From TrEMBL, chain A:
Matching InterPro entries: BFD-like_2Fe2S-bd_dom, BFD-like_2Fe2S-bd_dom_sf, FAD/NAD-bd_sf, FAD/NAD-binding_dom, Metab_Enz_Cyan_OpOx_G3PDH, Opine_Oxase_asu/HCN_bsu
Molecular function terms, GO-annotated: oxidoreductase activity
Record lineage: Bacteria, Pseudomonadati, Pseudomonadota, Alphaproteobacteria, Hyphomicrobiales
Keywords: Oxidoreductase
One Pfam family hit: Fer2_BFD
BFD-like [2Fe-2S]-binding domain segment(s): 377-428
Name of the molecule in the record: D-Octopine oxidase
Gene3D superfamilies: BFD-like [2Fe-2S]-binding domain, FAD/NAD(P)-binding domain
FAD/NAD(P)-binding domain location: 6-322
CDD domains: GlpA-like_Fer2_BFD-like
TrEMBL record, chain B:
A family per Pfam: DAO
Segments forming domain FAD dependent oxidoreductase: 6-343
Organism in which the protein naturally occurs: Nitratireductor indicus C115
UniProt keyword annotations, A-Z: Oxidoreductase
Name the UniProt record assigns to this protein: FAD dependent oxidoreductase family protein
InterPro entries the record matches: FAD-dep_OxRdtase (IPR006076), FAD/NAD-bd_sf (IPR036188)
Molecular function GO labels: oxidoreductase activity
Amino acid sequence: MRDIVDISIVGAGPAGATAALVVGQTECRSLLIDEQRQAGGQVWRAKDRSILSAPATPESRSGDNLRERLAASGVSQMTDTRVWQIERQGEHWVIHTLRNGTAGRLYSRAVILATGAREEAQPVRGWTTPGVIGLAGATALFKQSIRLPGRASVVAGTGPLVFFVASEIRRLGGTVAAVVTPNTRADWLARLPSMMARPDLLWRGGRWVADLMLASVPIYWGHAVKSVSGDDRVIGVTLCRLATDGTPLPGDIGIAADSVCLGGGLAPSIEAAQLAGVAVRYRPDLGGWVSEAESDGSTAREGLFLAGDSCGIRGAVAAELHGQIVARTALRHIGQASASDPALERAYRRASRFGEAMTALSVLRADPIGLATPDTVVCRCESLTRRAIEDEIESGAVSSNAVKSGQRAGMGPCGGKYCQSSVARLIALQENRALSEIAPPTPRPPIRPVPVSALAGDFDYGDLPMPKPAPL
Amino acid sequence: MSENHDIAIIGGGIMGCAAALRLASGGMAPIVLDRGDLGQGASGVNAGTLSLQIKRVRLMPYALKGHEEWARMGDAVGFRRTGGYTLAFTEREAELLTERQTLKAEAGAPIEFVTNNQVLSAEPNLTRRVLAASYCHEDGYANSSLTGQYYRGRLREASVPYRERCAVTSITRDTQGFVLHTGGPPIKARRILLAAGAWLKPVAAMLGVDLPVNARINTVSVTERMPPLFATVIGHATGLLTMKQKGNGTILIGGGWQGRGTPQEGRGEVIADSLIPNLSLAQFALPKLGQARVLRSWTGFEANVPDFYPLAGELPGVPDAFVLGCVRGGYTIGPYIGRLMGDFILGHSPEMPLFNPGRDFEKDAT
Ligand SMILES: Cc1cc2nc3c(=O)[nH]c(=O)nc-3n(C[C@H](O)[C@@H](O)[C@H](O)COP(=O)(O)OP(=O)(O)OC[C@H]3O[C@@H](n4cnc5c(N)ncnc54)[C@H](O)[C@@H]3O)c2cc1C
Ligand SMILES: Cc1cc2nc3c(=O)[nH]c(=O)nc-3n(C[C@H](O)[C@H](O)[C@H](O)COP(=O)(O)OP(=O)(O)OC[C@H]3O[C@@H](n4cnc5c(N)ncnc54)[C@H](O)[C@@H]3O)c2cc1C
């Protein structure tokens, strides 16, 4: 008989790791899988070995604490392991993995998907110039290798992440040439009541802003990066002020910089759940297209549960609490008594309120395509400009799938993660339809590219299970 | 308000679109309706192989004509005539190859048998373990992703209206013909052509006709861009592999390995137990393929009836209703058989015989 795990957890960020800790307290067999080398996810990413002596931060401390608790719990971990497909076979879920160039499969009675979020691109002229990185991507640089994006960086984006990144750059000895955020001070004030749900987090965010102001870092509220200049490397950016609806206003501001952290907001990673058969719906307030799941993590697919940012961007604190709630749901599913915990649920609701307010800030005034000129590259993998995509829509390709088929937008290595929101926006604009009607392209496995040799492995030709040939 | 058309075509795949174009050029006013987008069913996700070596013997004359149509469509559909090799690796496969390709050559396909050395000098990256092989210079491929784009353009040019996201949910009759219900205003037409691919059965059932349509769920995969590794279309004696490297360097791998799902559920799933042997076979044929990463695998629904010959003609028992589908190798043959179907509906006698949808499917139709 093959080995069957009771509960497998994909993603060892705050959501997945805390879920594993809850499951680890029971008798059932669990397994925590992540493609990174260590648990921690995006927010609590572990440092590379070379920089272990670097000073601790709240993130690194929480991460270390989590990793210690995981080690002490005896939860089985499979790190450096990518999940490339999930399928239902009879009573079980089969999780297909890729590790050290070898494909493997795991059978599990229940699966918790806690695959987190991905960062959206913000296509503006010059965004593909070397020296431009994602805003969330920048945090990975700091945490993993304490590298700075450059000597003088413009940090641009919505929500709290822009201030976190700017203050980290300063803490690590870099210069922030400017902070640029489409949000206004009034946007933040309007969110204050919800943020009071977590005064501790509010306080921390306030400190980042205070630090930047004390250091006289210019903060451009209600502005966005309109273009990046430089041929083979960044030499500066041009900003513009935004109207309330996000459209650019005249009056450009130029700023010299050698690097740009450019955020397009976070969107839930829905692909794994989609491949497992979970439907999606459009919830801009939660980051865009999200998987349909109940707040306790259950989905329409039996034995499949979702936790953390992958079912709506609510941030790390909420993710950590959600993981614990969803673990209980999964335990009940496999027949383990596990009472729900009202205090936990209350804490989760508070953290969600804070997190959702942050996501709302990120969505506000953000137009994924509003600043792209006709010549701006929208699909990076296939070098497709806004104009090329608009022409395709004009010729009648009025769905994400149709634009993908006609122009290859989404057929490159990123699988459409960077361009699909922009393409949907362009269709909506041109066709005068709501974004909620423009579904993302049909998901295709593998979730991550897989070498053919890893799948084929060593085999004898005679052992291939060849079906009957086609009729003559 | 409802509209009146000479003919409503249910299904905007290659069959429905090709027939619509012929009907329009013959003077009728058709409308094409699709539940999704044009060319996003089988016609938009198939492997795009245009190979006479994998066509059924009796369909060879249609496939030869199909190749002429593809050559005419040319760059707009990514057509390339590259030639193709079919390989056998075991004695058993070699026998199968000889038997099958001989019959196909007799049916008119320019297929020749070639030696292992000829194969390797043309395609040095193929495995040395070829036992027998055949070659057809007519073979090649087109880019099925472009089906929707191409036919949308052609229909617009011909002023043929089409509706996307317009599923036909029931069909009634009035004195002048058919009334198609779609959720929007009903669409009226004197005639109808059912070209709903793997969904023909439920659509025919709307008219009370039971068509014995089944669906296979074929798997296709594509790799990232690779340096040039081979130039022709590669097939396997059993038909269980088709492989081509596109101009942009990506390699497309098919062969009809079965995924999971039904057209009714609308969702097809790639299953590893099919994908892995499909890719293994491909890597066996082309060892360097092992280095390529697979970027995407997908499935599509291919319709058939028990004798695996087309449905092309009048819908039994329903005057003015026609059906076209279930053509094996239907991407290759579609543009041609769609034209024949158009001729038939226009009242002209088609250049080649059609396939009576009212026949006895249990009898061998050959
Ligand atoms: C690049 C990036 C940086 C971020 N930085 C911060 C930050 O500094 N501060 C902050 O408050 N928020 C940050 N966020 C937001 C983040 O989403 C947090 O809210 C939080 O990390 C969410 O926790 P989670 O457990 O839901 O997901 P995550 O922490 O994202 O964890 C998901 C985990 O799943 C793994 N995974 C995903 N898919 C697969 C797969 N197919 N196979 C195997 N493993 C897989 C990932 O490797 C990851 O470890 C960042 C987001 C991103 C995308
Ligand atoms: C994966 C795969 C690989 C293949 N490889 C090859 C190959 O390499 N070479 C080759 O020659 N052939 C190949 N084929 C076969 C070929 O693709 C098909 O024979 C051909 O595309 C069928 O065309 P069709 O128009 O009949 O069906 P489809 O293209 O499926 O079109 C049917 C259309 O009807 C629409 N429809 C259904 N129900 C309704 C309704 N109620 N109302 C409105 N619209 C409706 C659907 O949305 C769909 O667009 C392959 C098939 C598959 C699935």
